[in-house]
């Protein structure tokens, strides 16, 4: 069976003999052309960060946001084609508005990832459409208020179908990633290699990374031991800044702007809302990142000096 896309990459709705959708795979290359985007699930919330490459000195600082608010408790950061990302955010906002109109409550993070993933996946089914050239990381904080019957209407028994499930934890931080083929499920590693992440049941990922520097960012995320759940939200902001700076090393000839947002619990700094990280804290995080980078450079130089002394 051939692995070359000749003849099988002309239409989106055609599989190759070995079961590959080349149009979807090409969409991954568009994602890799964008800046690095990451999400970190901390003990008290979620941090989103993106490396926004400055393509022109005429651009106004702080303009052309890559991280956007979908609902008051949910934000999305995307990597890849900017217009595709904006269209996806518009669709996500429609889904959040529809949910709020029907259920009179904010949409849960997992439900939004589910709806956006289905929408993205539909663009891989028809020859008249092309896949989205973007990967979106969805982060949010869901209400921890206990519902009478698992979100369903009626009284029902305390346990069993239609009733409460004993020991179930409601709400909390959620982090999901929607890839160009529409996948967003919970698994240990991505079988496609399009985005790299660590996962936890129902609440999505401990950490997610996509874009040009995703492999470097993945390695740094693994070092944080996020599964322990001990990383504070403020420390998560600093680590997110450091990881973006480390991932940018491969493109150090290009200037970039660090963009960060966070969502905390109701008793945290954002009161359960998706907001930009305050300028003072962002600047402190950037100083921390630059200092960490300088420390790494000094460590790299020390062995070289030792070798010279031996000579």
Any overview of this molecule?
It contains six helices and ten strands, in the order αββββααββββααββα. The radius of gyration is 21 Å and the shape is globular. It has helices at about 20-30, 80-105, 110-120, 215-225, 235-245, 280-310, and strands spanning about 35-40, 45-55, 65-70, 75-80, 135-140, 170-180, 195-200, 205-210, 255-265, 275. The longest helix is centred in the last third of the chain and has 32 residues, at about 280-310. A hairpin with a 2-residue loop joins strand 1 (about 35-40) and strand 2 (about 45-55). The strands form two sheets. A six-stranded antiparallel β-sheet has the order 7-8-1-2-9-10, with helices on one face. Strands 3-4-5-6 form a four-stranded antiparallel β-sheet. The chain is α+β, with helices and mostly antiparallel strands and about 300 residues long. It starts with about 20 loop residues before the first helix and ends with a helix.
